[in-house]
Automatic annotation (TrEMBL):
The keyword Transmembrane is annotated on this UniProt entry: no
Keyword rRNA-binding listed: no
Keywords recorded for this protein, A-Z: DNA recombination, DNA-binding
Name this protein carries in UniProt: Integrase
Domain Tyr recombinase, chain residue ranges per copy: 107-305
Species assigned in the record: Nocardiopsis terrae
Top-level taxon of the source organism: Bacteria
Region (Disordered): 329-356
Length: 356
């Protein structure tokens, strides 16, 4: 969610009528109690992490007022808020899907498995914006970033996509181009050859659309557009995604959850955490690690198997060597029977064991 959305959705309704000098700590506290009780369009209370981010937006604005001598102190500094730890992505495992179907309760942040992601892409393969969903699934682009892409940012020969802007809705100004969320968000992504092929086909189809519409086509140079070539509004894209998600029969996720899914799938494929951080445009690897500490179940399972393989491989040979050395030195390094890993060949007693 952007700073502008924080202002429009939460701060203006609760503090918009207040004169700057009237913003006492008590007034701000009451406002945030109201914000915390706000019900989202999905019928849920605003997440504590969202309230924390809205507070950060207000505090930054009021710090500017303090620096310009419009306020003596920042009334948002002493706010008492509930803990705002962001919800970690939960994978739609078979059990999670069954629980959701029985109770109707869905997690705040959820991601599809590999099979579910593949099923969604198959479902939308005929949609005119298939390339957009494919790109988000593979790269984790934010909503504003993907609708803000221009063809000048895409190099199909080198297989790169540059993130240099995002589109946001601003009250009274419509859709405007703004800088990426942070310095780390300004990045260049490498895309695989399949995705390059998808983008090539999308460009060809877009050119066919432009010819059909003729002068009506809006030639703004955006990679993904509304029908007729107009700018694709982020919220309109979210509504389309919800409609496609429902029609697919898959468990519900948000459009932004495709970003989380891209990260978890990359980790499942063995991509280094530092690379995932760069792909997502996170300023800190700590944020990446904390958000995706709990990933696809098979990732944890494969990690356990790899660890066991590393520790237990050639265990029989190692044990014989250890016991042989122990016999020569008159000391026992590993107690008999303490290790039950796999052995190779027929088990035989060492000289040290025979003496015991």
């Amino acid at each position: 969610m952007s700073y502008q959305e924080h202002i429009d959705r939460y701060l203006v309704p609760h503090l918009g009528e207040a004169v700057l000098e009237e913003l006492t700590p008590a007034r701000v506290q009451r406002a945030f109690e109201g914000i915390a009780g706000h019900i989202t369009p999905r019928g849920q209370r605003v997440a504590a992490a969202t309230v924390q981010r809205v507070r950060a937006t207000l505090r930054a604005a009021l710090n500017t007022a303090v620096r310009e001598w419009l306020l003596g102190s920042n009334p948002a500094n002493g706010l008492r808020l509930a803990g705002g730890q962001s919800a970690r992505p939960m994978v739609w495992t078979e059990q999670a899907v069954a629980d959701w179907r029985n109770s109707g309760v869905r997690p705040a942040v959820a991601v599809w498995t590999v099979e579910q992601t593949r099923a969604f892409l198959d479902h939308v393969s005929g949609d005119r914006l298939y390339a957009l969903f494919h790109l988000v699934v593979m790269t984790g682009l934010r909503r504003g970033e993907v609708v803000g892409l221009r063809w000048e940012d895409v190099d199909l020969e080198r297989g790169t996509v540059r993130v240099v802007r995002q589109l946001q809705a601003h009250r009274g100004a419509g859709l405007v181009e703004v800088a990426p969320k942070s310095a780390a968000s300004r990045r260049t992504l490498m895309v695989d050859h399949t995705t390059v092929g998808v983008l090539r086909r999308h460009r060809w189809r877009q050119q066919q659309e432009a010819q059909e519409h003729g002068r009506v086509w809006d030639r703004g140079g955006y990679v993904f557009t509304a029908v007729g070539g107009g700018v694709l509004a982020p919220e309109r894209l979210s509504r389309l995604f919800r409609k496609l998600n429902t029609a697919s029969g898959l468990p519900p996720v948000r459009l932004h959850d495709l970003r989380h899914g891209a990260a978890t799938l990359a980790l499942a494929a063995g991509v280094d955490l530092k690379v995932v951080q760069a792909m997502l445009g996170h300023a800190s690897i700590v944020l990446t690690a904390d958000t995706y500490a709990s990933v696809l179940p098979q990732v944890a399972r494969e990690a356990a198997e790899r660890t066991a393989s590393l520790v237990l491989r050639d265990a029989g040979r190692v044990r014989r060597q250890v016991w042989g050395r122990a016999g020569r030195r008159g000391s026992v390094l590993v107690p008999p029977g303490s290790h039950h890993g796999p052995t190779t060949g027929t088990a035989r007693l060492s000289h040290a064991q025979m003496r015991l």
